[in-house]
User: What shape does this take?
Amino acid sequence: MVTMSSTELTRAAFMQRIAERRTTQAEATRQLGMSLRQVERMYAAYKREGPAALASKRRGKISNRKLADAYRQSVIQIVRECYADFGPTLAREKLLERHGSAPSIETLRKWMSDEGLWRTRSERRKRAQPPRHRRECLGELIQIDGCDHDWFEDRGPRCTLLVFVDDATSRLMELRFARSESTFDYFAATERYLRRHGKPVAFYSDKAAIFRVNAKEAVAGAGYTQFGRAMQELNIDVICPNTPAAKGRVERAHQTLQDRLVKELRLCGISERDAGNVFLDQFRDDYNHRFARVPKNPHDAHRPMLPHEDLSHVFTMHERRRLTDNLALHYNRVLYVIHPTEAAKKARGKSVDIRETNDGSVHIEYRGVELLATAFPKDAQVNPGAIVENKRLSHVLQVIATAQRERTENKLHAKGVTLRRKDQLRKALGVTGEFTPQRRNGHVRRPTHVCSRSRHRRIEIRLTMY
Assistant: This one.
């Protein structure tokens, strides 16, 4: 049996016709697209050995350019031990950087596929994505989203990465590790973005409650969230798509970051958010160098910050409350009594602005003037006029301190308290640490609430005292 290709079978047919004098060698030359000398040598070999002489002599032999089997096994062993979950492109980069030698990307892709370390595109299920043209200018449309993932694997707690991607170039404009997608975390990430690049035309986000009021008939407010209100003050639009596929740039970036960033953090030995945020600047520059595209229009659509735009003032929680005739108001279950200054007397019976910063401090302003106030929590037990003897004062103060600490701990364990509020309560208790999810059988055990009632679940909190 002789294996021949279709081209070789065609040549054998022409050689047979020449032998039977049904055509000439000159006609075969024109039909086969070969020179006359090639046809003569081919016909001579055909007469000596028959059609088998036209089969390629290289068929079935090892290529002279094939890499040695020992080298292949050494590369596969390194990949299996160090880069088992890496893609071929990233694995080759690390082989060159850390081991000094690597085959081509396609060769490594085939080796990893043969060893079961990589699934080819045909083996993966294809996803249908509707096409959409990119914007033309940098800064015209910035897609923002948060990705909750085990970025530090088993070395640190699970957290969220806030990602800002430019639609025109696929550049990573800003990255920030946060415990969750909260308003203040987006405030901090957006402030860094604006100080570095300027104001874009619009942000493109999902329909999360941080960016959009999802209530069909909101009974209070102006129809803006705190983030939307801040963007309106800075003259930046916030757009929400109907489907996640519409903001495919940032969704696709999540997949790449979950692959590359997790492994880069592992190689650098980073296991907590603060060190990760420092590393993100270096990673972002390398990512943009590899994957960013050139925009169709070289114009930069970012606008400079105006002199009157104070970002530290804009990126705070803003509320409006009416000041009573007694110079008091309620905010967040706390009664604030305003000191009777001249500015406070002018604000009596009128609406004042309340700003809350990330550290929990509250500032009350009227027409740009800050009003001094004293806070009285609603759950505080105040006994005015209590008489205490001097010799019992120390003991009474200890009892008061113990009661205050118990009330603060009860607030810390209360249901529905946000993570930012829990941090503030821990600082008040003189406690450091975060909620550490416990792992059982490879799964994260979510902490729940402590309560005496059986219908509530139980929580386990790890607190490290100073």
Q: What stands out?
A: Residues 436-440, 442-466 have pLDDT under 50 and may be disordered.
